[in-house]
TrEMBL record, chain A:
Protein name: Glutaconate CoA-transferase
Domain of life of the source: Bacteria
Coiled coil: none
Lineage, opening ranks: Bacteria, Pseudomonadati, Pseudomonadota, Alphaproteobacteria, Hyphomicrobiales
Keywords: Transferase
UniProtKB/TrEMBL annotation, chain B:
PANTHER family in the record: ACETATE COA-TRANSFERASE YDIF, CHOLESTEROL RING-CLEAVING HYDROLASE IPDB SUBUNIT
A Pfam family that the UniProt record links to this protein: CoA_trans
InterPro entries reported in the protein's UniProt record: CoA_trans_fam_I (IPR004165), NagB/RpiA_transferase-like (IPR037171)
Entries under SMART domains matching the protein: CoA_trans
Protein name as catalogued: CoA synthetase
Gene Ontology molecular function: CoA-transferase activity
Amino acid sequence: MPNKLISLAEAVRRFSWDGMQYASGAALPIGSDAIVFGRELLRQKRKDLHAIFHCSGQQLNLLAAAGAATKAECGFAALEVVGFANGLRRAVESGRLALEDYSNLAMTLRLLGGALNWPFVPATVNIGSDLQYRSAFSPDEFPARSKIPSVTDPFSGREIGAFSPLRPDVAAIHVTLADPNGNSILLGTEWSRFELSRAAKKVVVIADALVDPACIRQYPNLVRIPDILVEAVVYWPFAAWPHSSPGMYDMDEEHTFFMNKALASEQGTADYIRDFVESYSDLDSYLDLIGREKIKTLSASGSSFLLDPYRRWIFAPEDVASLTAQGLST
Amino acid sequence: MSAVLDYTRQEMMAIATGREIRDGELAIFGVGLSMLAGFFAQADHAPNLRTMTEGGVFGATPVGGLPWGIECNRLAVNATSFTSALDALGFLVASGRCDVGVIGAAQVDKFGNVNTTGVWDGDIGPHYRPPKTRLPGAGGANDIACGAKRFLIMVTHEPKRFAEKVTYISSPGYLDGGDARASYGFVGGGPSAIITTLGILRPEPGANEFVLDGWFPFSSVEEIKANTGWDLRVAPNAREIPAPSATELANLRKVDETGALRKK
């Protein structure tokens, strides 16, 4: 069968570079986010990243705290009920990272514009507020002219705004289920992952579980990211940890708060990177790090029933190992 | 005469917000307090409320307490549809179809403009500079403020949060007042109320400046004026707002299972 499986380390080696426009975190903070891809970016010392994160979350929090991201564009830059994103906050307040603000609809529309190769997207939101008039990327322009310029609707004559389209170099997209060729099913809201998968120049999917292609053919309506869009597939359970993945696992509340507290200081960030970024060598030791008991608890999610229709097609770890050996890695 | 109920200011704020939401409406909630207020309304007096979150979770009610986020598993367990941000914030809000939205604020001004982006020392000035304290940003609130037929603002009533003019407009209220919104052609009508931990402010027709419409039983006109950073005027018909009824409080606490609003 066609097979794009690749190891996480290899995916980051092949599909990332310093200074790139990197998109991920396309779900709200406490939903799914390919956080483990961000950990690997740090392990491979990537720097000067321009992050396109619809919403931030712990991945951008970590990349910002570590100084690996120097620019970011977001609709929402915090951890919802968990609180402010301390690492991102430190980076923004110190001026180490320029954060360009948009709204959540604006980020989706800009990805849609990139996906359709539109020159711009009409903006009926964000206009009239400081999202339009203030630009962290062009701080000397006030009111900003290059961020959301005013344009005239040729039909009504009314003045509206123009959003710039987004075409990130690479998107690391967390999905619940993928087949070895990259056909993907997302449980829970897709947030803007559909638009992102079409806007990015290259897409790597990071899947919590791998399924037989027969699963994909059983539910083609639910496959919102088809294989033709996908460069590589990474199998990595608990890829969104400590966030949740609907149907798979709940948020690790303890680690979420611990991590955000650590990222509030330089020392805490260094300790966090030592203990939770550089300390594992493979998937097994990553799962050990989370804790096998913790994994049982988090997996006993009230949302588990969402996975029931797909369970019979999920590959066992040993099958995944042999598929990975035959994949793009070879 | 029933016994005096023990409730917090946060609970009063959530119940007062919920009372603004009517049965059958199409409603969108942000995360946290606004979600509790919205789902309280559904549990209490608006059983046919049609709800969604900005990530595209439809028809769900929280299970196991306040969801950590709008894509939290506490909401994923009984949804009727999962779609996307483009669907919820675009097709259903930017289109003008959404009746009411609920948003929070770090800072709000007399024209109902909302800042959730940052705290600066003084004005930002002509050259943009990073905030002293960075806040979450606009999220979907800007989209709700532009597109929902009306929206409600929930905010803790403190002088630093109630400014003559917000430092940064993350989500537009009535901008400079009067019909200033009209020049942008927003499909949404603007904020219909600011519900605080002390009372309710509403826009005065015409000027669209917010005036005091009512105070909670534990509060007063004096306390509210002292905690407002502009010279707040009092509406001629301003009155005391009824305390939560036993039923209202029970319905709120069914939604707020983990007691997020019980903390004093």
